[in-house]
Amino acid sequence: MRQHGTRLNPTARFLIFFIFSFLFILILDSFSTFAAQCADIRENVLRLHILANSDSVEDQELKLRVRDRILQETDSLFYLSDSLETAEEKAQESLPRIEEIARDELLKWGCNDEVQAELTHMFFDTRVYEDFTMPAGYYDAVRVTIGDAKGHNWWCVLYPALCVPAASEDGEAALARTLTEGEREIVESKPEYEVRFYAVELFERVKDFFK
Description:
211 residues, alpha+beta, four-stranded mixed sheet, 6 strands, 53% helix
């Protein structure tokens, strides 16, 4: 004897469709808001990106020495900046000085690799730095390349001044001057617990691919 499964009546089917549609809209709206806040973060941040010559122990140590020297001798440029525009103007004017500092530090350790510093607009993956996270996408950045620039990189945030030694305020206070409360919550969250970070990174990578 053939048994037929229970068939939902039209009213029940409509109710289920309505519930799933409503949930989908909520999820889409939440992601759209999150993505928009991530875009605002990217538009208000200046990053520092240093690429080592190679992944050898020596080259990686040199990269960190160059990093420390650059941050030490240019800290006031970015800590005293009151806007991204001002920070970028100071960065552009200081590129020759940044190159000079990096070369001098390398020569001090017996390395004559070439150094190039530029202000650029470049793609970053989702990155975690100490107590804050930067969502994936394109950022303005001071990019310093050493030699062949084929080694692992180091990055931080120059504006707001989150990695500047002279900053007397903590990172939370620096963020508060620049980002909204919602944007600060994103930056201060942990991406391993935040699925939307991965969704934004995937979305930005697709955009970058077609670009």
